[in-house]
Structures are given as C-alpha cells and as structure tokens.
Amino acid sequence: MRFLPLAALLLATPAVAQDPALARAERILARAPVIDGHNDLPWELRDAFDADVAPIAGDTTKTPKPLQTDLARLRRGHVGGQFWSVWISADTTGPRAVELTLEQIDVVRRMAAAYPRDLELATTAADVRRIMAAGRTASLIGVEGGHQIDGRLSVLRDYKALGVAYMTLTHSKSIAWADSSTDAPRAGGLSPFGRQVVAEMNRIGMIVDISHVADTTMRQALALTKAPVIASHSSARALADVPRNIPDDLLAAIGANGGVVMVNFYPAFLSAEWRAWDQSRTAFAKSIGVPASVYGAKSPAPLVTWDAAHPMPRVDARTVANHIEHVARIAGRDHVGIGGDFDGIGGTAPVDVPGVEAYPVVFAELVRRGWSDADLAKLANGNVLRVMARVEAVAASMAAVPAPVATEPTAG
C-alpha cells in the first residue's frame, strides 16, 4: 500500500484541485497517515462471509452485504494503522467467549497473511512506524470487552502473546468486575479483580481502553493506571448527551493522564437530533414488524415512506470536527485521535464520510478551521503512537514484577 503516489494521483483529480483544504489534507495524510482506533471488519467478515477474508481485496460497497472497509478504501483514506476489533457479543460469556475471541484474532491474522503487500501485523509503536514508512497498513488488535477473558488473567496474558494491543474493559453490559455505561452497575466501578486487571495490563504492556465503560469505572481506571489510556471510539457528551460519550471532567482527566480520546463517527454518538430521529424510526419499524437496521432506498417500503416524511438529520464531517475540536479544547490537542468505528455502526455514517476512504474529508474540515499541519499530524497518528510508546515503557519498568494470581475467581 503506497501512500505518496496515491496522494499525487488524488491531487490531480478535479475535486481535490478545486478544494485547497482537501488538497492540503491529502498532503498531510500522505506524510502522517491515520491510525484509527477501532474497526469491526473482522466480525462483519465472520457474520456475512463465513470469516472469508477475500472480500476485502475487492469493492466491498458492492458485496451482498456492503461494508465500509476494504483494501482500496484504506489506501484512499491514508489509513497507515488500524486497530482491528476482535469483538464478540456481550451475551457470550464463559469459555465460549475465549474460543470466539481466538477465532476473531485468527481473522485478523489471516487478513494480514493473505495481503502482505497491504497489511502487516504490528504490536509496538516501532512496528507501526516501520510499516507505515513502507506504505502498508499496520494491523493491530483490540479486544472489545472484559467478558472476553472469562475472569482469567492467564487468558489476558495469552491474548497479549497473540498480539492484542488493547482491551476495552467492558462492552455494552456490566460484568462482575467492571461496570458498563449502558447497563446497571455490578462492580461499583471496578471490583478488586477489576483493579488487578488494570494493573496486569500495565505490567504486560496492554493499553487500557475506557470506551464503553461507566463513568465510575473510567474514574477508577484513571486513578489506578500507571500508563496512559485510550478511549478507542468515543465522542463528547457535551455535544451529544449519551452514556457512551465522555463528559468534560473525564476528558480533562484523560488529558492529564496522557491518554487519547479517539472520536467515534457513529451519528447517534455525534448528534442528539440524529439519535432521537433514529429512535423514532426504530419504534415505528418495530410497530409494523419490519427491521430498522437498513437505511436508504433498500429499506422496507414502509420505512422508505416514513423516511420521506421524516428526513434524516444531517450528520457530516463538520459534526465529526465539532467533536474533535471539543475534545481538543478540553483534553488538549495532544490527546485526541480518530476512532471511526466503521463496520460497527450498522451501515450508518456521516453523509460525506461513508467509510474509511473519507478521512481526508474530516481533515480538510479541520484545515478550514485553522488547524496546523503539526496538530493534524498528531491527530492522525502522533498522539496514539506516543501512548503506545509510553505503555511499552511502563511495561519495561515493571519487567521484574512477577505475574500475579487472580485475587478472586470471577467470570464475565
């Protein structure tokens, strides 16, 4: 995957030539490609294609189930590093959760093995820099929920050995040792075992991801961790008041921790108006017994009619930029990044950012708002690379600390 020749090609196209902000964004991203914090392509491949990785070599907008990611679109979007989520449902617990997670890790590894000219597995900041310099996309792995370790520190360590870079402490449901933002509390934030998980992640050099977690969990994790954290795909609650987003006091705390908030592109997390519209649409669909998960012309006929009478509120690159700027204002420009959540957002996306190919559109909006090249490079990859390097340094400083035994047998 070669970024510079592509940039030259794009700069020659009329759309880019006529938009100086987009031309500048392309030049910046050719030098400093995006490292995106969260993409659910591995599960979409499993769900729609029986875990076959071949579809990503073609145009996934034209597959039977259209996707938001493929190799060509990664090139067009200047994606130099991607944390691939190895998500499994929060309803899957126990040993089966571990088994499915291993299968999802295998999907990522097979993607990289099948397309070595485009992708290469990475586990360190140095790996990422080297792979980006070679014009490929560094492929990192993120476990999206503490239920996936089945209450066992040994499993956490095994995931690290298989190349897992981060673990999100919870997904959509609270577990015995950590509370989720979208479920009733069970642990009071973090249980004693939950605190041990954070400490062990520091020891082994795994990034603590605090997307999805309850505010109490987030505060306790920030107080405990010796290393910077990330929120791999979260936005600003001040702009869209939903539990999955982060309030200003915690944005500031993440900045003080040295961490990074990687802004999510899901319209429901970007716009309260869009979220209310979608909730009304879903309620209507349920009342007539049709699925609400398809948008646009392919929706069931009654929903097409409903949509015509209730136009979708516009969410676009400007909306994304609003969240980026808010995080930067509260946490600092050294503490914001990109976490698109593509292929995990139900086929929806900002209208002018339909998939991973459109990151330059977001950066062009920030160019128009006066962001410097240096700050845009930090947003693209510098901030998260700094976190990765610091997490590695903390782990190195703890190398003599023995691996602990769990303080309590606790399942997800």
TrEMBL record:
- Name the Gene Ontology biological process terms: proteolysis
Task: List the signal peptide residues.
Answer: 1-17
Which InterPro entries would you find in this protein's record?
Metal_Hydrolase, Pept_M19
Top-rank lineage group of the source organism: Bacteria
Coiled-coil ranges per UniProt: none
> Top EC class per UniProt?
hydrolase
Pfam families, alphabetized: Peptidase_M19 (PF01244)
Question: What are the EC numbers?
Answer: 3.4.13.19
User: SUPFAM superfamilies from the xrefs?
Assistant: Metallo-dependent hydrolases
Question: Do you know which CDD domains this protein is assigned to?
Answer: rDP_like
**Which GO molecular function annotations are given, in alphabetical order?**
metallodipeptidase activity
Which keywords has UniProt assigned to this entry?
A: Dipeptidase, Hydrolase, Protease, Signal
Name it: Membrane dipeptidase
